[in-house]
Amino acid sequence: MTRPLLALRNLTVAAGRAGSAKIILDSVSLSLAPRDIVGVVGASGSGKTVLSKAVVNWLEPPLAKRSGEVLFEGRDIYAMGGADMRSLRQRISYVGANPMGALDPTLPVGVQIVEKMRAVVPGVSRRDAERRVVELLDAVRIPSARNRFHDYPSQFSGGMMQRALIVDALVTNPALLVADNVTQPLDVTVAAQVIRLMKELTTSFNTAVLFVSSSLPVAREACSRILVMDGGRIVEEQSTEDLIDKPVYPYTRELVRQTPRIWGEPAATPPLNDRREVVLSLRDASQIYKVRKKAGFGGVNLVRAVRNVTFDVRRGDSFAIVGESGCGKSTLMRLLCRLELPSSGQILCSDQDIAALKGKGLLAFRGRLQMVLQDPFGSLPPRTSIGKILEDPLRTHRWRDKVRIRERVLKVMGEVGLPAELYEELPLGLSAGQRQRVNVARALVLEPEILIMDETLSALDQAEQFKLIDLFQKLQKEYDLTYIFISHDLAMVRKACNRVAVMYLGEVFELADNERLFFDPGHPYTKALLSAMPTLEQRRYRPEECLLEGEPPSPLDIPDGCSFRSRCPQAMNKCSRVQPSLTVRERQDFAACHLIVPPAASGDTGAAHRTMRRS
Amino acid sequence: MFVLNFLMRRLAQGALIIFLVSLLIFTLLRVVPGDPVRLMAGGMAPEALIEKIATDMGLRDPIVVQFGRYIGGVVRGDLGQSFVRPANGAATGGATFNDTTRGERAKVLSLILEALPMTLQLAAVTLVIALVFSGIVGIAGGLAIGRWPDKLAFYISSIFISLPNFWLGIVLALLFSVKLGWLPAIGYRGFAYTILPAIVLAVELSPVLIRTLVSSVSAQMTEPYVAVGHVRGLGRGRIIANHALRNASVPLLNLLGIQFSSLLGGVIIVEYIFDYPGLGLLTINAVLQRDFPLIQGIAIVTSAIFVLINIIVDLVATTMDPRLEY
């Protein structure tokens, strides 16, 4: 047996001073052979990130090593001097979860990678270093790497930046790469590409990887062996497939059980009939922002954030709007809430144009449509008691009787599962899940008909998400609510929604019922999204077949024709000339792609739109 | 391309600002009480003569007409002639009304061009002293937040900000010129005369620079790229010198743009105390003598300098930090 590349022996790390210290890593031992790719998964707070930092000798106060050792090729890295450790950085590298903050914003990306290479590899000439960096930037498929070398971090998207940091980590040909939640900030299609690249490169460079992730399916994509952490200890270690098939430790079993299945389970939400009342209807709604051009003399660029969106939401729907960052879903949310007025088109709420509402009518509309925000921490005022937070909307909507207000608030708190004792408490001590319940209660207190959930669940862990989804479904039955979920999380959508709109670059590409969308998607982009989803199941769609390399084009410069053609493996000649419009596939299912053949074969674009409005 | 666009846009804005400043100054000077002709011709001059001189000089025309005439000259680079100063540089003010030297009154532009280099020299020396001193104190403080260098920086800036400059000027002159005889203090006969006033101004300028440096350096040291840089294998010295200071200098630079402008204003008292023949002294005398063309000229030139400095500062800041958009 070969000597392990990395070995941790009873490593204990604590936070805080000796008296009141909290143990973060509790006597962790593990070993990693050269060229091994090992995953570490665990819930938030289980000590994964501290483990990844401890391995690269990056423990900052209040964290401190208590006992144990971290052996890299047999040498304890905590017993080394600063200079030795620095030269060892050539062999151990690290990529973190925050690509945007990792480099100095005022210097070009390439220059900083060259600087690092020359700092840790003695005697490399600037020319050689530059050549190597450009070569690697090419290898991670950064388009026109030679030019991008001179771009600044702010000119890179999150996905590009994460690729650049992988280059930064691999440029010195390290023996060990520690990857801490590298895909967390990325969209699924980009994350899938990044993982694929990382695997390719580490294989060709013979690099071992310690892959830390909060998501079991992501770790499964990347690793052959997985360690499970819980409460600062390593509780289970198995090969990836065995771990998923036969988890032993209770936490692991829970983790595997809670990981959502997309295709393995029937939809939780049966398709509803299409003769229900339309409560919210978008007619060709577009939103265009003007931004000043930096170069050139004056003039503005037009950001077409939402483009000709048309769909109906019916009473009782759980309508999902999904898409990756920059697809316009947040702008659409602002339009739906009438925080902004569309630059063209209409939004009708019960056949009334919401742009025309004023005064009392607007207040009544706000009472009917409420929203729940994404960030459970930023969205609650920290110095206002929970009771007061929930009373405020009622007061705004002209409730005056104190006793009735209190009654109403307590009733809503009960419905969302908040104990009545919290009435006088400040939100400071609440968990993210409880805070999100306060947010839901604040929206529900006015007895709205429509709730808009803007990434409401994305800040919560899996177990808490499930509980809230159950709560939403219970409330929906009770009060005949209509939900609009804005989300990037397809697993959540599969579980909670009956109807889904897929957006890309401001356009709706596909609109279909849950079952149809996940089992028979009409648009190649939907297939790409599904193929990129991390899941524990056998995939229905293979990412290699569904998605070309690259990232969405900038909304400043949307290509003619179909805006997806730059990444679509099925792009044809026609796609660069004619923009496909939503075409009917079946009663309620539409997709905007030239490959779709309408069932009656008579459905030209106008007919498709007409069908939609009628249905 | 960006630089050209930037300069064109900002210079056009600057020209507008200067025009508005001169309009404002021009109007204000003419509505305040005090007749310059009375001062020029002397208290004994007959009323009719004063009216004649005033009409000859166009001072009885409507303000708009006067301003139009004036700005026409400014565009051609002619800031007019001083009301009171003769070109030969002899006595100021006119004690007698049968003034024979009227044709040789000094050009405003040449008066300013004489004084301006002196003030710019003073300002430059001040900046060098202030930057070196605050750089050492402020960067050391920012790198050791909560420890003694930080506290020292705080004490120094607190003391400096509470010293009035006229008092400090007199004390320093007393100490270094009168008692120790190391540095000259009054007037100007060589570079050494710049040092004492520059120290006084630097003491006034330093506290703001020190506080800005302490906070921006310490803020940069908590940025993720510093910690990540360490893990990427960059040494602490390299991270500080190449990255943290580079980022921290952007707020300092913006501050300097404003401070340099107020420095030009702040020299008035200090130049007066040290009898330093710069723009400040010229301004005081011009105001005391109701020398309208000179006051206007100084206002236009100083506002032009303000505008230029801020354009330069913004341009340098954008080359340092590409995210900035001006």
UniProtKB/TrEMBL annotation, chain A:
GO biological process: peptide transport; transmembrane transport
Topology in the lipid bilayer: Peripheral membrane protein
PROSITE patterns recorded: ABC_TRANSPORTER_1, ABC_TRANSPORTER_2
InterPro entries: AAA+_ATPase (IPR003593), ABC_transp_ATP-bind (IPR050319), ABC_transporter-like_ATP-bd (IPR003439), ABC_transporter-like_CS (IPR017871), Oligopep_ABC_C (IPR013563), P-loop_NTPase (IPR027417)
GO molecular function: ATP binding; ATP hydrolysis activity
Keyword Transport among record annotations: yes
Domain of life: Bacteria
Matching Pfam families: ABC_tran, oligo_HPY
Gene Ontology CC: one annotated term: plasma membrane
Family statement drawn from the similarity comment of this UniProt entry: Belongs to the ABC transporter superfamily.
Role played: Involved in beta-(1-->2)glucan export. Transmembrane domains (TMD) form a pore in the inner membrane and the ATP-binding domain (NBD) is responsible for energy generation.
NCBIfam families membership: oligo_HPY (TIGR01727), PRK10419.1 (NF007739), PRK11308.1 (NF008453)
This protein's name: ABC transporter ATP-binding protein
UniProtKB/TrEMBL annotation, chain B:
CDD domains named among the record's database cross-references: TM_PBP2
Family listed: Belongs to the binding-protein-dependent transport system permease family.
GO aspect biological process, one term: transmembrane transport
PROSITE patterns in alphabetical order: ABC_TM1
Keywords: Cell membrane, Membrane, Transmembrane, Transmembrane helix, Transport
Lineage of the organism: Bacteria, Pseudomonadati, Pseudomonadota, Alphaproteobacteria, Hyphomicrobiales
Record's GO cellular component terms: plasma membrane
Domain of life: Bacteria
Pfam family, any one: BPD_transp_1
Database matches in PANTHER family: DIPEPTIDE TRANSPORT SYSTEM PERMEASE PROTEIN DPPB-RELATED (PTHR43163:SF6)
Organism: Bradyrhizobium rifense
Compartment(s) of residence: Cell membrane
Protein's name according to its UniProt entry: ABC transporter permease
Bilayer topology: Multi-pass membrane protein
Domain ABC transmembrane type-1 positions: 116-317
Coiled coil: none
Major localization listed first in the record, in broad terms: membrane
Entry's transmembrane regions: 120-145, 152-178, 190-210, 252-274, 294-317
InterPro entries registered for this protein in UniProt: BPD_transp_1_N (IPR045621), MetI-like (IPR000515), MetI-like_sf (IPR035906)
